[in-house]
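Worked Example 4.2. Consider the chain below.
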Amino acid sequence: MEHSLRAEPTHSVWDRSITPRLRIASGDQVAFECVDASGGQVHPGMTTAEYLAIDRTRIHALTGPVWIEGAEAGDVLQVDVLATRHAGWGWSSVVEGLGFLKNRFSTPYLFHWQLDGESTSSLAPAVVPVRPFLGVMGVARADDGAFRTRPPGPFGGNLDVRELCAGSRLYLPVFNHGALFSCGDGHAAQGDGEVCINGLECPLDVTLRFNLHKQQPLSGPIVEASEAAAPDSTADAWVVVETGTDVADAARAATARMVDLLVSRWGFSEIHAYILCSVAMKLRLSQVVNEPVFTVSAALSKQVLPARELFPAQ
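Applying the procedure from the previous section yields the following structure tokens:
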């Protein structure tokens, strides 16, 4: 059976006492309307000053909960992502005190994106592929109380796994009767790391199908990704490499050097380079076997940037 669920009223906490807005059976699919991560407060043309005044208790405004009949603790909920549809616009921001390079980027900033089908040229000369997915998909937590949505966990939640685009599948352990599934935080694009604190945030309509697997052991989320549904190759890429004894410090250094590279070789402003890293760069652990030294790489696909020779022949 097919259902639809409008966004309002949204909720911005995990709380298993929230009354379900929809009841479905295993095998059903639901077309979700999801507002952007601000809870519909950000709009095209908004100024940075206006953005700083939004109500941050509404961040991660989620659509749901959905009750799946027959679900109980110990089950696994399978969520198939069937389709996604953006609204043609999005935003990214820098907020003082947040982000991976918060000591370098402390001045608030709001950037608006125009989405042209499967890509956006808003941050020229970059062309960023559009690959929509939900940053937050999860079931109610096992404990009583209201919990903010920023930390993910075994229940799913704010996973920000960019592979969860159309054609992919998410498996979640169930902790409560009915599972109580909610979702939101649409992204049109995001880099691994989401370094400036945002991906390309946007309203997103998403169609999901739900299936129950009864009494199956699962300690946390598993994603079954489909690159065939949304190709995203970084085989041809610019890769900045850093090594150190602290993984976070190495990742931060790699990110900072990628920002510097974009500024020096492609002419981006520092803030635009930082935002581009947040929506398109992949932060990866390249090796962990040479303890206590670890290697982190930051990769940006050559498809995103105009061709360049870093060191042209003299």
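The helical segments are 48-52, 247-266, 270-280. The first strand starts at residue 2 and ends at 5. Compare this with Example 4.1 before moving on.
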